[in-house]
Protein backbone atom coordinates (compact mmCIF):
# COMPACT_ATOMS: atom_id res chain seq x y z
CA UNK A 1 0.00 0.00 0.00
CA UNK A 2 2.77 2.46 0.90
CA UNK A 3 4.56 1.71 -2.40
CA UNK A 4 1.37 2.42 -4.38
CA UNK A 5 0.87 5.71 -2.51
CA UNK A 6 4.50 6.69 -3.14
CA UNK A 7 4.27 6.00 -6.88
CA UNK A 8 0.84 7.60 -7.36
CA UNK A 9 1.29 9.85 -10.42
CA UNK A 10 0.16 13.41 -11.05
CA UNK A 11 -2.57 13.61 -13.74
CA UNK A 12 -1.94 15.29 -17.09
CA UNK A 13 -2.14 19.07 -16.98
CA UNK A 14 -1.79 19.12 -13.19
CA UNK A 15 1.01 21.72 -13.09
CA UNK A 16 -0.80 24.15 -15.39
CA UNK A 17 -4.04 23.78 -13.43
CA UNK A 18 -2.17 24.26 -10.16
CA UNK A 19 -0.51 27.47 -11.39
CA UNK A 20 -3.77 28.94 -12.75
CA UNK A 21 -5.74 28.04 -9.62
CA UNK A 22 -2.98 29.39 -7.39
CA UNK A 23 -3.04 32.64 -9.37
CA UNK A 24 -6.84 32.74 -9.18
CA UNK A 25 -6.72 32.32 -5.41
CA UNK A 26 -4.03 35.01 -5.22
CA UNK A 27 -6.20 37.47 -7.18
CA UNK A 28 -9.25 36.59 -5.07
CA UNK A 29 -7.32 37.14 -1.84
CA UNK A 30 -5.73 40.34 -3.12
CA UNK A 31 -9.04 41.72 -4.33
CA UNK A 32 -10.70 40.98 -1.02
CA UNK A 33 -7.94 42.61 1.03
CA UNK A 34 -7.70 45.60 -1.34
CA UNK A 35 -11.25 46.55 -0.40
CA UNK A 36 -12.44 45.06 2.88
CA UNK A 37 -9.96 46.55 5.41
CA UNK A 38 -11.09 50.01 4.27
CA UNK A 39 -14.80 49.42 3.83
CA UNK A 40 -15.51 51.01 7.21
CA UNK A 41 -13.73 54.16 6.01
CA UNK A 42 -15.69 53.97 2.73
CA UNK A 43 -18.97 53.65 4.67
CA UNK A 44 -17.96 56.63 6.82
CA UNK A 45 -17.87 58.77 3.67
CA UNK A 46 -21.45 57.84 2.71
CA UNK A 47 -23.20 59.43 5.68
CA UNK A 48 -22.99 60.73 9.24
CA UNK A 49 -22.77 57.90 11.76
CA UNK A 50 -22.17 57.55 15.48
CA UNK A 51 -19.27 55.42 16.74
CA UNK A 52 -21.62 52.50 17.44
CA UNK A 53 -23.42 52.83 14.08
CA UNK A 54 -20.16 52.88 12.13
CA UNK A 55 -18.89 49.76 13.90
CA UNK A 56 -22.24 48.01 13.44
CA UNK A 57 -22.56 48.84 9.72
CA UNK A 58 -18.94 47.78 9.16
CA UNK A 59 -19.67 44.45 10.83
CA UNK A 60 -22.83 43.97 8.76
CA UNK A 61 -20.97 44.76 5.53
CA UNK A 62 -18.49 42.02 6.39
CA UNK A 63 -21.06 39.56 7.68
CA UNK A 64 -23.63 39.72 4.88
CA UNK A 65 -21.39 37.95 2.38
CA UNK A 66 -20.86 35.08 4.76
CA UNK A 67 -24.48 34.80 5.88
CA UNK A 68 -25.58 34.13 2.31
CA UNK A 69 -22.51 31.95 1.72
CA UNK A 70 -23.36 29.74 4.69
CA UNK A 71 -26.94 29.33 3.46
CA UNK A 72 -26.17 28.30 -0.13
CA UNK A 73 -22.85 26.43 0.21
CA UNK A 74 -24.43 22.97 0.66
CA UNK A 75 -26.36 23.47 -2.59
CA UNK A 76 -23.19 24.43 -4.47
CA UNK A 77 -21.39 21.46 -2.88
CA UNK A 78 -23.93 18.96 -4.21
CA UNK A 79 -23.69 20.62 -7.62
CA UNK A 80 -19.88 20.36 -7.47
CA UNK A 81 -20.14 16.58 -6.94
CA UNK A 82 -22.35 16.23 -10.03
CA UNK A 83 -20.94 18.94 -12.33
CA UNK A 84 -17.35 19.40 -11.17
CA UNK A 85 -15.39 22.01 -9.23
CA UNK A 86 -14.23 23.93 -12.28
CA UNK A 87 -17.78 25.05 -12.96
CA UNK A 88 -18.01 26.27 -9.36
CA UNK A 89 -14.81 28.29 -9.80
CA UNK A 90 -16.26 29.89 -12.93
CA UNK A 91 -19.54 30.65 -11.19
CA UNK A 92 -17.75 32.30 -8.26
CA UNK A 93 -15.25 34.39 -10.22
CA UNK A 94 -17.78 35.52 -12.82
CA UNK A 95 -20.41 36.77 -10.39
CA UNK A 96 -17.83 38.28 -8.02
CA UNK A 97 -16.43 40.33 -10.91
CA UNK A 98 -19.84 41.96 -11.31
CA UNK A 99 -20.83 42.42 -7.66
CA UNK A 100 -17.48 43.84 -6.52
CA UNK A 101 -17.39 46.32 -9.40
CA UNK A 102 -20.95 47.48 -8.61
CA UNK A 103 -20.04 47.88 -4.92
CA UNK A 104 -17.62 50.59 -6.01
CA UNK A 105 -20.64 52.49 -7.42
CA UNK A 106 -22.52 52.43 -4.08
CA UNK A 107 -24.20 55.65 -2.96
CA UNK A 108 -25.31 54.48 0.50
CA UNK A 109 -24.42 51.88 3.11
CA UNK A 110 -27.43 49.66 2.35
CA UNK A 111 -26.32 49.26 -1.27
CA UNK A 112 -22.94 48.03 -0.02
CA UNK A 113 -24.59 45.59 2.38
CA UNK A 114 -26.91 44.23 -0.34
CA UNK A 115 -24.09 43.74 -2.88
CA UNK A 116 -22.03 41.98 -0.22
CA UNK A 117 -24.98 39.63 0.43
CA UNK A 118 -25.34 38.89 -3.29
CA UNK A 119 -21.59 38.36 -3.64
CA UNK A 120 -21.64 35.78 -0.86
CA UNK A 121 -24.41 33.77 -2.48
CA UNK A 122 -22.15 33.09 -5.49
CA UNK A 123 -18.69 33.24 -3.93
CA UNK A 124 -16.33 30.38 -3.08
CA UNK A 125 -13.51 30.47 -5.62
CA UNK A 126 -10.73 29.67 -3.16
CA UNK A 127 -12.56 26.76 -1.51
CA UNK A 128 -13.56 25.20 -4.83
CA UNK A 129 -10.10 25.71 -6.33
CA UNK A 130 -8.64 24.01 -3.26
CA UNK A 131 -11.09 21.11 -3.54
CA UNK A 132 -10.37 20.80 -7.27
CA UNK A 133 -6.59 20.60 -6.88
CA UNK A 134 -6.94 18.36 -3.79
CA UNK A 135 -8.89 15.86 -5.87
CA UNK A 136 -6.15 15.91 -8.53
CA UNK A 137 -3.22 15.57 -6.10
CA UNK A 138 -1.63 12.31 -4.85
CA UNK A 139 -2.02 11.94 -1.08
CA UNK A 140 1.72 11.92 -0.53
CA UNK A 141 1.79 15.62 -1.50
CA UNK A 142 -1.51 16.71 0.09
CA UNK A 143 0.04 18.64 2.97
CA UNK A 144 2.45 20.56 0.74
CA UNK A 145 -0.23 21.34 -1.86
CA UNK A 146 -2.75 22.56 0.75
CA UNK A 147 -0.13 24.81 2.35
CA UNK A 148 1.09 26.10 -1.01
CA UNK A 149 -2.48 26.85 -2.10
CA UNK A 150 -2.86 28.77 1.13
CA UNK A 151 0.13 30.94 0.18
CA UNK A 152 -1.93 32.18 -2.77
CA UNK A 153 -4.61 33.70 -0.58
CA UNK A 154 -2.19 34.99 2.04
CA UNK A 155 0.11 36.47 -0.61
CA UNK A 156 -2.91 38.27 -1.99
CA UNK A 157 -3.83 39.34 1.52
CA UNK A 158 -0.31 40.70 1.89
CA UNK A 159 -0.27 42.70 -1.33
CA UNK A 160 -3.92 43.76 -1.24
CA UNK A 161 -3.97 46.01 1.85
CA UNK A 162 -0.80 47.81 0.76
CA UNK A 163 -2.06 48.36 -2.77
CA UNK A 164 -5.59 49.14 -1.61
CA UNK A 165 -4.34 51.54 1.05
CA UNK A 166 -2.16 53.44 -1.40
CA UNK A 167 -4.91 53.59 -4.05
CA UNK A 168 -7.47 54.70 -1.45
CA UNK A 169 -5.19 57.50 -0.19
CA UNK A 170 -4.45 58.68 -3.73
CA UNK A 171 -7.71 58.15 -5.63
CA UNK A 172 -10.44 57.38 -3.09
CA UNK A 173 -12.07 54.24 -1.73
CA UNK A 174 -14.02 53.33 -4.90
CA UNK A 175 -11.06 52.65 -7.21
CA UNK A 176 -9.96 49.38 -5.50
CA UNK A 177 -13.43 47.92 -6.10
CA UNK A 178 -13.26 48.71 -9.81
CA UNK A 179 -9.79 47.18 -10.14
CA UNK A 180 -10.83 44.08 -8.20
CA UNK A 181 -13.83 43.56 -10.47
CA UNK A 182 -11.56 43.62 -13.51
CA UNK A 183 -9.11 41.17 -11.93
CA UNK A 184 -11.90 38.73 -11.07
CA UNK A 185 -12.97 38.83 -14.73
CA UNK A 186 -9.38 37.89 -15.65
CA UNK A 187 -9.55 35.01 -13.14
CA UNK A 188 -12.73 33.77 -14.80
CA UNK A 189 -11.12 33.77 -18.26
CA UNK A 190 -7.91 32.03 -17.11
CA UNK A 191 -9.84 29.31 -15.28
CA UNK A 192 -12.16 28.80 -18.25
CA UNK A 193 -9.38 28.38 -20.81
CA UNK A 194 -6.45 26.81 -18.96
CA UNK A 195 -7.73 24.55 -16.17
CA UNK A 196 -8.42 20.91 -17.03
CA UNK A 197 -10.34 18.88 -14.46
CA UNK A 198 -10.27 15.07 -14.56
CA UNK A 199 -13.76 14.70 -13.23
CA UNK A 200 -16.20 11.82 -13.61
CA UNK A 201 -19.72 13.21 -13.16
CA UNK A 202 -21.87 11.57 -10.52
CA UNK A 203 -25.53 11.27 -11.42
CA UNK A 204 -27.80 12.94 -8.84
CA UNK A 205 -29.58 9.61 -8.33
CA UNK A 206 -26.22 7.98 -7.49
CA UNK A 207 -25.28 10.47 -4.80
CA UNK A 208 -25.17 8.76 -1.44
CA UNK A 209 -26.85 10.67 1.40
CA UNK A 210 -24.37 12.58 3.58
CA UNK A 211 -25.41 10.52 6.62
CA UNK A 212 -24.37 7.35 4.80
CA UNK A 213 -21.08 8.86 3.64
CA UNK A 214 -20.24 10.08 7.13
CA UNK A 215 -20.79 6.56 8.44
CA UNK A 216 -17.99 5.40 6.11
CA UNK A 217 -15.47 7.69 7.85
CA UNK A 218 -13.78 5.82 10.73
CA UNK A 219 -13.04 8.92 12.83
CA UNK A 220 -15.99 11.12 11.94
CA UNK A 221 -15.72 13.05 15.23
CA UNK A 222 -12.40 14.41 13.99
CA UNK A 223 -14.17 15.67 10.85
CA UNK A 224 -16.71 17.48 13.03
CA UNK A 225 -13.83 18.94 15.04
CA UNK A 226 -12.29 20.26 11.81
CA UNK A 227 -15.58 21.96 10.94
CA UNK A 228 -15.52 23.67 14.35
CA UNK A 229 -11.84 24.53 13.90
CA UNK A 230 -12.56 26.14 10.56
CA UNK A 231 -15.36 28.18 12.16
CA UNK A 232 -13.28 29.40 15.12
CA UNK A 233 -10.08 30.11 13.17
CA UNK A 234 -12.05 32.10 10.61
CA UNK A 235 -13.89 33.93 13.39
CA UNK A 236 -10.53 34.85 14.95
CA UNK A 237 -9.47 36.44 11.67
CA UNK A 238 -12.75 38.21 10.99
CA UNK A 239 -13.15 39.59 14.50
CA UNK A 240 -10.11 41.74 13.83
CA UNK A 241 -10.40 42.61 10.13
CA UNK A 242 -13.48 44.88 10.31
CA UNK A 243 -12.00 47.01 13.10
CA UNK A 244 -8.31 47.17 12.12
CA UNK A 245 -8.54 50.50 10.31
CA UNK A 246 -10.75 51.96 13.05
CA UNK A 247 -8.38 50.69 15.75
CA UNK A 248 -5.42 52.26 13.98
CA UNK A 249 -7.35 55.52 13.62
CA UNK A 250 -8.10 55.35 17.35
CA UNK A 251 -4.36 55.09 18.00
CA UNK A 252 -3.02 57.79 15.67
CA UNK A 253 -6.06 59.95 14.79
CA UNK A 254 -6.86 61.07 11.26
CA UNK A 255 -3.28 60.75 9.99
CA UNK A 256 -2.78 61.73 6.34
CA UNK A 257 -1.54 58.18 5.60
CA UNK A 258 -4.19 56.46 7.73
CA UNK A 259 -5.31 53.99 5.05
CA UNK A 260 -1.73 53.00 4.19
CA UNK A 261 -0.77 52.47 7.84
CA UNK A 262 -3.95 50.46 8.42
CA UNK A 263 -3.09 48.47 5.29
CA UNK A 264 0.35 47.59 6.67
CA UNK A 265 -1.19 46.40 9.94
CA UNK A 266 -3.80 44.41 8.02
CA UNK A 267 -1.16 42.85 5.75
CA UNK A 268 1.30 41.83 8.49
CA UNK A 269 -0.17 38.33 9.13
CA UNK A 270 -0.11 37.63 5.40
CA UNK A 271 3.63 38.24 5.26
CA UNK A 272 4.17 35.86 8.16
CA UNK A 273 1.96 33.24 6.51
CA UNK A 274 3.81 33.58 3.23
CA UNK A 275 7.25 33.13 4.79
CA UNK A 276 6.37 30.03 6.81
CA UNK A 277 3.62 28.25 4.82
CA UNK A 278 5.86 26.13 2.59
CA UNK A 279 8.04 24.90 5.47
CA UNK A 280 4.96 24.20 7.56
CA UNK A 281 3.48 22.22 4.66
CA UNK A 282 6.56 20.00 4.33
CA UNK A 283 6.64 19.54 8.11
CA UNK A 284 2.96 18.59 8.03
CA UNK A 285 3.68 15.79 5.54
CA UNK A 286 6.23 14.39 8.01
CA UNK A 287 4.68 14.82 11.48
CA UNK A 288 0.99 14.93 10.54
CA UNK A 289 -1.53 17.76 10.32
CA UNK A 290 -3.01 17.22 13.79
CA UNK A 291 0.25 18.10 15.57
CA UNK A 292 0.72 21.20 13.43
CA UNK A 293 -2.85 22.28 14.19
CA UNK A 294 -2.42 21.95 17.95
CA UNK A 295 0.89 23.80 18.01
CA UNK A 296 -0.44 26.62 15.85
CA UNK A 297 -3.52 27.08 18.02
CA UNK A 298 -1.45 27.18 21.22
CA UNK A 299 0.94 29.84 19.90
CA UNK A 300 -1.85 31.92 18.35
CA UNK A 301 -3.73 31.96 21.65
CA UNK A 302 -0.72 33.38 23.48
CA UNK A 303 -0.01 36.03 20.83
CA UNK A 304 -3.39 37.71 21.27
CA UNK A 305 -2.32 38.79 24.78
CA UNK A 306 0.36 41.34 23.70
CA UNK A 307 -1.86 42.47 20.80
CA UNK A 308 -4.56 43.38 23.32
CA UNK A 309 -2.06 45.36 25.42
CA UNK A 310 -0.28 47.40 22.72
CA UNK A 311 -1.03 51.04 21.88
CA UNK A 312 1.22 51.34 18.84
CA UNK A 313 0.39 50.45 15.21
CA UNK A 314 4.01 49.36 14.73
CA UNK A 315 3.88 46.91 17.63
CA UNK A 316 0.46 45.71 16.56
CA UNK A 317 1.80 45.02 13.06
CA UNK A 318 4.80 43.20 14.57
CA UNK A 319 2.70 40.91 16.75
CA UNK A 320 0.33 40.24 13.84
CA UNK A 321 3.34 39.30 11.70
CA UNK A 322 4.41 36.73 14.30
CA UNK A 323 0.83 35.51 14.44
CA UNK A 324 1.00 34.94 10.68
CA UNK A 325 4.16 32.86 11.11
CA UNK A 326 2.50 30.72 13.76
CA UNK A 327 -0.92 30.33 12.16
CA UNK A 328 0.25 29.38 8.66
CA UNK A 329 -0.69 25.75 9.26
CA UNK A 330 -4.12 26.17 10.85
CA UNK A 331 -6.44 26.13 7.84
CA UNK A 332 -4.18 23.86 5.70
CA UNK A 333 -4.00 21.35 8.55
CA UNK A 334 -7.78 21.24 8.91
CA UNK A 335 -8.22 20.91 5.14
CA UNK A 336 -5.53 18.23 4.90
CA UNK A 337 -7.30 16.15 7.53
CA UNK A 338 -10.48 16.44 5.46
CA UNK A 339 -8.75 15.36 2.23
CA UNK A 340 -7.14 12.34 3.87
CA UNK A 341 -10.20 11.06 5.75
CA UNK A 342 -13.10 11.83 3.39
CA UNK A 343 -14.29 9.57 0.49
CA UNK A 344 -13.51 11.11 -2.89
CA UNK A 345 -17.15 11.07 -4.00
CA UNK A 346 -18.02 13.30 -1.02
CA UNK A 347 -15.26 15.90 -1.58
CA UNK A 348 -17.57 18.56 -2.97
CA UNK A 349 -20.16 18.27 -0.23
CA UNK A 350 -17.67 17.98 2.64
CA UNK A 351 -15.74 21.02 1.38
CA UNK A 352 -19.01 22.88 0.95
CA UNK A 353 -20.00 22.10 4.53
CA UNK A 354 -16.54 23.22 5.59
CA UNK A 355 -17.11 26.42 3.59
CA UNK A 356 -20.42 26.90 5.40
CA UNK A 357 -18.62 26.65 8.72
CA UNK A 358 -15.98 29.06 7.43
CA UNK A 359 -18.73 31.46 6.38
CA UNK A 360 -20.43 31.07 9.76
CA UNK A 361 -17.08 31.87 11.39
CA UNK A 362 -16.83 35.01 9.29
CA UNK A 363 -20.31 36.07 10.39
CA UNK A 364 -19.62 35.29 14.02
CA UNK A 365 -16.22 36.97 13.98
CA UNK A 366 -17.19 40.15 12.16
CA UNK A 367 -20.31 40.71 14.27
CA UNK A 368 -18.43 39.83 17.45
CA UNK A 369 -15.64 42.26 16.59
CA UNK A 370 -17.94 45.12 15.66
CA UNK A 371 -20.31 44.66 18.64
CA UNK A 372 -17.60 44.15 21.25
CA UNK A 373 -15.57 47.11 19.98
CA UNK A 374 -18.70 49.27 19.81
CA UNK A 375 -19.93 48.35 23.29
CA UNK A 376 -16.58 48.03 25.07
CA UNK A 377 -13.22 48.69 23.41
CA UNK A 378 -10.95 47.52 20.60
CA UNK A 379 -8.55 45.61 22.95
CA UNK A 380 -11.55 43.65 24.27
CA UNK A 381 -11.90 42.10 20.81
CA UNK A 382 -8.36 40.67 21.06
CA UNK A 383 -8.98 39.24 24.54
CA UNK A 384 -12.19 37.53 23.41
CA UNK A 385 -10.57 36.20 20.22
CA UNK A 386 -7.70 34.67 22.18
CA UNK A 387 -10.19 32.96 24.48
CA UNK A 388 -12.06 31.38 21.54
CA UNK A 389 -8.80 30.01 20.12
CA UNK A 390 -8.02 28.46 23.49
CA UNK A 391 -11.42 26.74 23.43
CA UNK A 392 -10.65 25.47 19.92
CA UNK A 393 -7.33 24.03 21.11
CA UNK A 394 -9.08 22.15 23.92
CA UNK A 395 -11.67 20.75 21.48
CA UNK A 396 -8.97 19.45 19.13
CA UNK A 397 -6.96 17.92 21.99
CA UNK A 398 -9.98 16.13 23.46
CA UNK A 399 -11.11 14.88 20.05
CA UNK A 400 -7.67 13.60 19.14
CA UNK A 401 -7.32 11.83 22.48
CA UNK A 402 -10.69 10.09 22.07
CA UNK A 403 -9.88 9.15 18.47
CA UNK A 404 -6.54 7.67 19.52
CA UNK A 405 -8.21 5.60 22.22
Automatic annotation (TrEMBL):
<dbReference type="GO" id="GO:0005886">
    <property type="term" value="C:plasma membrane"/>
</dbReference>
<feature type="transmembrane region" description="Helical">
    <location>
        <begin position="96"/>
        <end position="118"/>
    </location>
</feature>
<keyword id="KW-0812">Transmembrane</keyword>
<dbReference type="InterPro" id="IPR011701">
    <property type="entry name" value="MFS"/>
</dbReference>
<keyword id="KW-0472">Membrane</keyword>
<keyword id="KW-1003">Cell membrane</keyword>
<feature type="transmembrane region" description="Helical">
    <location>
        <begin position="19"/>
        <end position="42"/>
    </location>
</feature>
<protein>
    <submittedName>
        <fullName>Multidrug transporter</fullName>
    </submittedName>
</protein>
<dbReference type="InterPro" id="IPR036259">
    <property type="entry name" value="MFS_trans_sf"/>
</dbReference>
<feature type="transmembrane region" description="Helical">
    <location>
        <begin position="258"/>
        <end position="280"/>
    </location>
</feature>
<dbReference type="Pfam" id="PF07690">
    <property type="entry name" value="MFS_1"/>
</dbReference>
<feature type="transmembrane region" description="Helical">
    <location>
        <begin position="216"/>
        <end position="238"/>
    </location>
</feature>
<keyword id="KW-1133">Transmembrane helix</keyword>
<feature type="domain" description="Major facilitator superfamily (MFS) profile">
    <location>
        <begin position="17"/>
        <end position="404"/>
    </location>
</feature>
<feature type="transmembrane region" description="Helical">
    <location>
        <begin position="292"/>
        <end position="311"/>
    </location>
</feature>
<dbReference type="InterPro" id="IPR020846">
    <property type="entry name" value="MFS_dom"/>
</dbReference>
<feature type="transmembrane region" description="Helical">
    <location>
        <begin position="54"/>
        <end position="76"/>
    </location>
</feature>
<feature type="transmembrane region" description="Helical">
    <location>
        <begin position="175"/>
        <end position="195"/>
    </location>
</feature>
<keyword id="KW-0813">Transport</keyword>
<feature type="transmembrane region" description="Helical">
    <location>
        <begin position="144"/>
        <end position="163"/>
    </location>
</feature>
<feature type="transmembrane region" description="Helical">
    <location>
        <begin position="317"/>
        <end position="338"/>
    </location>
</feature>
<feature type="transmembrane region" description="Helical">
    <location>
        <begin position="382"/>
        <end position="399"/>
    </location>
</feature>
<dbReference type="GO" id="GO:0022857">
    <property type="term" value="F:transmembrane transporter activity"/>
</dbReference>
